[in-house]
Design brief:
95 residues; 0% helix; Immunoglobulin-like
Length: 95
């Protein structure tokens, strides 16, 4: 997962399935340490076939999230979402 820290707002996840099985990816709020209950889903993909990519859009708010894969073989990645990013709307020709 890269980057592991970014600002709140609209995001696009590009996911590459490098495994030999179809996978489904979920971005959800990270549950408390020691709590086995799932977090609140922010974004979820459909099944991604082996060696294919998927792109999914969503909006996230400030907090800590877990990027999880349906299979138990792959460890969840933690993502930290900071304060709302500034808009570049109406800023012409910005790099």
């Amino acid at each position: 997962m890269s980057p592991k820290r970014f600002g709140a707002g609209p995001i696009t996840l590009i996911i590459s399935n490098q495994s030999s099985q179809s996978q489904q990816v979920t971005l959800e709020t990270d549950s408390q340490a020691g709590d086995s209950s799932p977090g609140q889903k922010a974004i979820q993909t459909g099944p991604i076939n082996p060696r294919e990519t998927a792109s999914v859009k969503g909006e996230v708010i400030r907090g800590v999230y877990a990027l999880k894969v349906g299979g138990a073989d792959i460890r969840a990645a933690r993502v930290t979402v900071g304060r709302q990013r500034e808009s570049a709307q109406n800023d012409l020709l910005q790099p």
